[in-house]
Model the fold of this input.
Amino acid sequence: LGEAVRQRRGFGLASTDLPLLLLLASAGLAVWPAHDRDASWPALAAIAAGVGVYFVISRACGDARLWRVLAGGSVIAGAAVSAYFVSQYSHLGYGEKLPYLDQAAAWLGSASPRLGSWAPDRNSVATGLEGVLFLAVGLAAAARSRAWRAAWGAAAVVLLAGLALSASRGAWLGVAVASGVWVVMRRPWVTVRPAATALIAAAPLVFGLAWVAAVIWWPEMTGSGAVAPALDRPDRVTLYRHSAFLAADYPFTGIGL
Done:
């Protein structure tokens, strides 16, 4: 990311900027065909905020101190959310998802008082924590003093606990794959064969998307339970199929945010 930003050309844009700018532009256009435009504005604001965060962080990569401040602030905020989520899980009435995790949550919750009624969505918590976890690990690895290394390491443990308790298998898979890519990228042969490395890293994603597409468009070939038993969420497959029908009905404008 730092290299791409430093090598930006024409209008001061880097190659990594363009996909996000296209996403923001398409999201803005998607407000027009939306069935309920008032409900679309919060989604557009969230996308715009994410793009803004990207530009702030990407442009700060040349200043090591500012980079650490931004990363540290993100880790502290994420650890605070994760600590709240873990300590309040049993008080907020979440439905049972994985029994053994719910038992652990009940044990942790018995030792902590109820602090509030805010019950964030578990998948949203996982989405917010999965990226911050890598920042915490990176800060711990780069810390020069034992105190900072211990502090960032403790934050990483808290983030990992919240991620585990979220029971978001998509987030777990994302962290596992990203960890594997992170480890591979540190190997010396990556610089010798970058194209082969990129293909290896992308192969599971391409295969997964192809399989899901086959389940959506050709259920008679794959069978209705081809994916659902593995994920234990047949409703997701139904949602994907209905979304595919909507995309076929509105191929150019979509149905809005």
User: Anything to note?
Assistant: Residues 1-5, 226-230 have pLDDT under 50 and may be disordered.
